[in-house]
């Protein structure tokens, strides 16, 4: 999760396009959106009118000696500030609701997209990077709303509104006070440009540092065994220094812009005082045209005017990183989905045979794995598939249920190309048991029921009994017993038994089993064999076999070599032939 | 600009195996100890804050004077200077500029000190963790440790930077502003200051709620991450069982939880802003109404009200900040306690003082009645190696066999000092293992090297991974080891050869490739003692025996030096141990037999049984073959 967000700041889409996409995500709540935007008008008005009220209190009350007017204007002030607080709260909440709603929908969309992307996509990209799209990047976009960066619009309206108000109240004094704006803009721009670099550096340094830290903690044993503690400690500290230094630069900029804006606001007041003294106050100076209330209103307005400017650079930084994130999210949205249901799928049936016809396959741009593999499995037949590591056997587990598409040739179920079937219907007919067992966090029942959500508890227990997994279930607290992430609370053998049970619960006519090779103790080994036997009993089975005992039970054996069927026949027949199969068996014996 | 917070993982108390007689750890830190090295910076920061506040707090009075002058009132000379609008304006400008510079410096000094505290603590925490044995890391989760070294350090930094600055700042502002306001007109001032205690209380409550809800949001986000991670890691299964929509529903559930948590947090935050603003505004309304009446009565000038107004604005943020400081303080202390829990863990493998004389170890290993206990889940101890003795002379090849759980790996861990052993049980080069300086024992070249079954690789280039443990290796050395562990063809297939990034952020290696890289890494270190823990289980038999034969013969290691290490090898693959000088058969932690392959076969014990299992399978196949031939 740590190695993510700043990889490449280069964006492919324009600000406008990304904002349009964002608005499209907000679209389902268009009414609320319009309302929230419209509320900027009263919000701005109620903000900029406050100094005017104070000015009136001074002129009509203080200076006129009218106590009633003082109370009246103080009352108006209270109404204005209370009204503003109300509008601000309501508007903020609605904006938030819009933003979080949009981000929530965005996540659902991305997650669903990931379920549809070809598995090849996951082999191309590290898991961490894909995770980042769904979690960190959407969070960056959400930050736009949660940090209040979206109120940048409101801030800008407030600034413009205040300037307009000042000019309405007094043009000459406005010119004087707003002399400070050009240097302010120049100064803030200077900080902003630097801030973007520095904050980028902070995030990059942080991600490097956390990545290293995580890795060193995970591999501490290796670090210690090679007596490298000091070396890696120094490296870590160097990264820590880089992170600290980047942060110190950020502190400098942050403190600088804060103080700079603060100083400009004070100087604006000073300039206003100077100008007011030149203009002269009505009733004091001989030809004074200015009312004291206007001066007070200006002093008050200038005190508030600069507050949002201080936040401006922070907010634009957040907006920048949200746009970068939105761009990467758009990339994921644009990933092509290759394995899709045909528009008019043919009915999925498995009555006669499974036929692989000249199947070619390669992972992405990688070397070919299968190069013209052909065979037919009759219904009810058990076919063992053997061959050297890397011969392409395990690929079958992925190709038949169409987790991947073949790159050449075809896989036919009762003479229908699997690509013409609805993948869901196809996968109801075939259950694949990959070599690596993967259990989900949850209960044992949830895991066993994974492929057949309607299976009753009794059915689950029957299947567990059949697969010699009933005592596993019992030992871990029954069907409601907890399975931790990836089944780490279970032993390897237990996991494999549950995976076989899970497949049995689906009761598929065609099983494709990739036999696990990891070493387990003899008793578990025996039970696994038995469970496997029960799973394939009475079904058509393709077994990528590693155990001799398994192979012996098959009706027919295919020897796959370099992506093709090299030999096939019954076990004894193949041994007698003394070819590659016989050699493989010999090797198997030597390995023990 | 603070680091984005990460979801906190549930804290599990580290629970070390304690061995009597260990020195107590002095690693924990108190707040005072954290502050002490930065006392100078704190002092400078406070002085700078005094100056910047002096500048800032003088301005409202100058504005007051300016307004009074403009209104045509007589103003008393100040320090002998007769005030004029020009002088007032000039003074304000000078104070603004000076204040800005000093304010920048004060923030830099105090915030930087916070960053330095963070960095120092990070370094110390890592250095401490590096003294803990693998047993600790097996119990503690990396996620939890990461959370302590990132989130908790952030909280501690905020305590030393943000909390310090705002506490000092608020103190100065309050001490100056409140009396000055009271002096202007005590009744008006009291009315106007009325909302401020409420601001502090409200900020305190709000910041607590915000903290709680932030945590809720982090937890929800953490749950979301694990659902995404799990479902992505299990994509094969999800698709094979057509469970995409079920997984999406599950994701939808946690996603909604994130939405709810985000909205709950947003509600409190979005109400806080307007609420605080409103309270500040009420103060100003009070000043306006009460002050106005007093001005009409002629006891205050308009300038005084302007000054009061400005001072109330100056008071608002420090008051809000003070509320936040309280919760930052609480969080910081809680975080320090969590970091201290890690720092307080005592290492169970204690470094000795004996350093290696120049050159390599000879490689003699002796075990005398070695016993190893490990902690059971229920807190008790289980003996996994029981009364084991062996003398392994330099250059010998010793195999260790046994069924799963017989304690084979633990023997290797004890020799490598990865777990605590009692004095007298393990000797290396005739020096008690307890007395050896760990780094000296493991330092390449000529130390002890261990190759575990699942070789952990770093996200670095293949070359850097291979050279990780070695010092001063040349390209030729690396190339030689690539051939030695039969990686040549694999390297040729990687996109950038030896420069290819492997590990988390690079090419994912197969199990066999990873094992061979891990072995290569150990061989480049030219070890005198090589401990192999079933480390070629995913490599085919032929390659394994070739590699082992080379090791037994002695190979040309880095720098052209011939290395013939003492080898202790655990293996499930009996054929690999056929040439071993001695094979130890382990059952339930005890050596049940020992001897060469031939002797053990004759003895007909455990080894012969294990070997027989292999043979029976082979015989079955042969019988089938014979039958097949007759058909």
Please summarize what this structure is.
Chain A has helices spanning 15-26, 30-38, 40-63, 67-116, 119-124, 127-146, 152-169, 171-177, 181-218, 220-225, 229-279, 292-305, 307-333, 395-399, 423-429, 444-448, 457-466, 470-475, 492-506, 522-536, 548-552, 571-577, 580-591, and strands at 353-362, 368-378, 382-386, 408-413, 416-417, 430-433, 442-443, 482-483, 510-514, 540-544, 556-561, 564-569.
Please provide the count of β strands of chain B. 12
Taken from the alpha-carbon principal axes, the silhouette of chain A is elongated
Mean pLDDT of chain A: 85
The CATH top-level class label of the domain at 365-595 in chain B:
Alpha Beta
Q: Give the overall form of chain B.
A: elongated
Q: Strand sequence of the main sheet of chain B, in spatial order?
A: 6-7-10-3-11-12
The CATH class name of the largest domain in chain A reads Alpha Beta
CATH homologous superfamily identity of the largest domain in chain A: P-loop containing nucleotide triphosphate hydrolases
* Number of helices, where a helix is a run of at least 4 consecutive DSSP H or I residues of chain A: 23
Determine the CATH superfamily of the domain at 365-595 in chain B: P-loop containing nucleotide triphosphate hydrolases
What is the rounded Rg of chain A? 36 Å
DSSP helix fraction of chain B:
55-70%
> Greatest contact pair?
A-B, 159 and 156 residues
Into which percentage range does the β-strand content of chain A fall? 5-15%
| Overall number of strands of chain A | 12
Q: Helical residue percent of chain A?
A: 55-70%
What name is given to the CATH topology of the largest domain in chain A?
A: Rossmann fold
Classify the secondary structure makeup of chain A into a structural class. Answer: alpha/beta
Proportion in β-strands of chain B: 5-15%
- Major beta sheet, strand line-up of chain A: 6-9-10-3-11-12
Largest sheet geometry of chain B = 6 strands, mixed
């Amino acid at each position: 999760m740590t190695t993510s967000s700043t990889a490449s700041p280069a964006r492919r889409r324009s600000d406008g396009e990304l904002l349009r996409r964002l608005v499209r995500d907000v679209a389902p709540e268009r009414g609320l959106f319009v309302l929230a935007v419209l509320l900027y008008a009263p919000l701005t008005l109620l903000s900029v009118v406050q100094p005017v009220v104070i000015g009136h209190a001074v002129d009509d009350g203080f200076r006129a000696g009218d106590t009633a007017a003082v109370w009246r204007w103080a009352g108006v002030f209270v109404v204005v500030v209370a009204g503003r607080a109300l509008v601000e709260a309501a508007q903020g909440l609605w904006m938030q609701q819009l933003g979080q709603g949009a981000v929530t929908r965005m996540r659902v969309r991305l997650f669903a997209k990931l379920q549809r992307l070809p598995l090849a996509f996951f082999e191309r990209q590290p898991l961490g990077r894909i995770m980042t799209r769904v979690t960190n990047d959407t969070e960056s976009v959400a930050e736009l709303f949660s940090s209040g960066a979206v109120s940048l619009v409101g801030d800008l309206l407030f600034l413009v509104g205040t300037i307009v108000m000042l000019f309405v109240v007094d043009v000459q004094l406005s010119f004087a006070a707003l002399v400070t704006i050009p240097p302010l803009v120049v100064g803030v721009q200077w900080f902003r440009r630097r801030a973007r670099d520095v904050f980028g550096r902070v995030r990059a340094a942080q991600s490097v540092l956390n990545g290293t830290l995580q890795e060193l903690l995970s591999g501490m044993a290796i670090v210690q065994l090679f007596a490298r503690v000091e070396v890696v400690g120094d490296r870590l500290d160097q990264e820590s220094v880089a992170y600290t230094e980047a942060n110190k630069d950020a502190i400098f900029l942050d403190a600088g812009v804060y103080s700079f804006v603060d100083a400009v606001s004070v100087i604006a007041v000073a300039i206003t005082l100077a100008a007011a003294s030149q203009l002269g106050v009505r009733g004091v100076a001989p030809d004074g045209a200015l009312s004291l209330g206007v001066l007070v209103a200006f002093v008050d307005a200038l005190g508030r005017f600069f507050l949002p400017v201080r936040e401006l650079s922070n907010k634009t930084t957040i907006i920048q990183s949200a746009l970068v994130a939105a761009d990467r999210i758009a990339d994921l949205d644009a990933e092509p989905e290759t394995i899709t249901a045909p528009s008019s799928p043919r009915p999925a049936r498995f009555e006669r045979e499974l036929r692989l016809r000249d199947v070619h396959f390669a992972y992405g741009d990688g070397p070919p794995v299968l190069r013209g593999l052909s065979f037919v499995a009759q219904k009810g037949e058990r076919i063992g598939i053997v061959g050297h590591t890397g011969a392409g056997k395990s690929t079958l587990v992925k190709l038949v249920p169409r987790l991947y598409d073949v790159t050449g040739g075809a896989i036919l179920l009762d003479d229908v190309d699997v690509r013409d079937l609805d993948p869901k219907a196809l996968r109801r007919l075939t259950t694949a048991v990959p070599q690596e067992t993967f259990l989900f966090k949850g209960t044992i029942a949830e895991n066993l029921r994974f492929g057949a959500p309607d299976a009753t508890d009794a059915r689950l227990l029957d299947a567990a009994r059949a697969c010699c997994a009933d005592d596993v279930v019992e030992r871990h607290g029954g069907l409601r017993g907890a399975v931790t992430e990836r089944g780490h609370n279970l032993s390897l053998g237990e996991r494999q038994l549950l995976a076989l049970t899970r497949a049995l619960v689906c009761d598929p006519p065609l099983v494709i089993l990739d036999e696990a090779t990891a070493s387990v103790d003899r008793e578990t080994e025996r039970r696994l064999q038995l469970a496997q036997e029960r799973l394939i009993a009475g079904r058509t089975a393709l077994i990528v076999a590693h155990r001799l005992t398994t192979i012996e039970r098959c009706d027919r054996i295919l020897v796959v070599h370099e992506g093709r069927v090299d030999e096939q026949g019954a076990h004894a027949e193949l041994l007698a032939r003394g070819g590659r199969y016989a050699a493989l068996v010999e090797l198997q014996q030597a390995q023990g | 600009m603070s680091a984005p917070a990460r979801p906190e993982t549930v804290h599990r108390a580290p629970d070390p195996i304690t061995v009597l007689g260990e020195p107590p750890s002095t690693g924990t830190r108190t707040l005072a100890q954290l502050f002490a090295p930065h006392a100078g910076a704190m002092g400078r920061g406070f002085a700078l804050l005094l100056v910047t506040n002096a500048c800032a707090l003088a301005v409202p009075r100058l504005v007051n004077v300016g307004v009074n002058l403009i209104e045509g009132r007589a103003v008393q000379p100040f320090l002998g200077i007769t005030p004029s609008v020009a002088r007032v304006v000039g003074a304000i400008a000078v104070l603004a500029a000076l204040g800005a510079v000093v304010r920048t410096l004060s923030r830099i000094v105090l915030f930087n000190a916070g960053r330095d505290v963070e960095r120092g603590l990070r370094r110390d925490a890592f250095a401490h963790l590096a003294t803990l044995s693998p047993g600790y890391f097996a119990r503690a989760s990396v996620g939890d440790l990461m959370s302590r070294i990132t989130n908790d350090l952030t909280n501690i930094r905020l305590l030393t930077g943000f909390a310090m600055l705002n506490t000092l700042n608020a103190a100065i502002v309050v001490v100056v502003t409140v009396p000055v306001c009271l002096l202007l007109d005590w009744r008006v001032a009291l009315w106007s200051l009325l909302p401020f205690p409420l601001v502090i209380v409200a900020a305190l409550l709000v910041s607590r709620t915000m903290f709680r809800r932030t945590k809720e949001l982090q937890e929800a986000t953490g749950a979301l991450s694990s659902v995404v991670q799990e479902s992505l890691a299990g994509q094969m299964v999800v698709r094979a069982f057509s469970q995409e929509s079920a997984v999406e529903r599950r994701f939808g559930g946690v996603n909604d939880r994130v939405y709810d948590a985000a909205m709950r947090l947003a509600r409190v935050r979005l109400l806080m802003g307007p609420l605080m603003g409103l309270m500040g505004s009420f103060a100003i309304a009070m000043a306006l109404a009460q002050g106005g009446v007093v001005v009409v009565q002629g006891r205050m000038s308009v300038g005084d009200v302007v000054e009061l107004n400005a001072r109330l604005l100056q008071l608002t943020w420090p008051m809000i900040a003070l509320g936040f400081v309280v919760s930052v303080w609480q969080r910081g202390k809680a975080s320090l306690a969590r970091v201290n829990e890690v720092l307080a863990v005592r290492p169970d493998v204690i470094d000795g003082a004996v350093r290696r004389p120049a050159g390599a170890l000879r490689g003699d290993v002796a075990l005398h009645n070695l016993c190893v206990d490990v902690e059971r889940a229920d807190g008790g101890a289980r003996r996994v190696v029981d009364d084991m003795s062996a003398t392994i002379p330099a250059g010998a090849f010793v195999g260790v066999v046994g069924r799963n759980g017989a304690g084979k790996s633990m023997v290797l861990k004890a020799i490598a000092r990865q777990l605590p052993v009692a004095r007298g049980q393990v000797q290396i080069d005739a020096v008690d293992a307890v007395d050896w300086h760990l780094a000296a024992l493991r330092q390449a070249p000529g130390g002890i090297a261990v190759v575990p079954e699942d070789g952990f690789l770093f996200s670095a280039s293949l070359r850097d991974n291979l050279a990780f443990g070695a010092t001063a290796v040349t390209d030729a050395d690396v190339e030689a080891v690539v051939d030695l562990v039969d990686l040549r063809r694999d390297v040729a297939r990687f996109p950038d050869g030896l420069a290819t990034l492997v590990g988390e952020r690079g090419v994912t290696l197969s199990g066999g490739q990873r094992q061979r890289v891990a072995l290569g890494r150990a061989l480049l270190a030219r070890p005198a003692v090589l401990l192999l823990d079933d480390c070629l289980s995913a490599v085919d038999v032929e390659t394994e025996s070739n590699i082992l034969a080379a090791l037994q013969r002695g190979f040309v290691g880095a720098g052209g030096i011939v290395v013939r290490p003492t080898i202790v090898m655990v293996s499930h693959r009996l054929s690999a141990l056929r040439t071993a000088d001695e094979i130890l058969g382990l059952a339930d932690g005890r050596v049940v037999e020992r001897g060469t392959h031939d002797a053990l076969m004759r003895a007909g014990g455990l080894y012969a049984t294990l070997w027989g299992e292999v043979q029976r399978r082979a015989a079955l196949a042969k019988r089938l073959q014979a039958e097949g031939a007759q058909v």
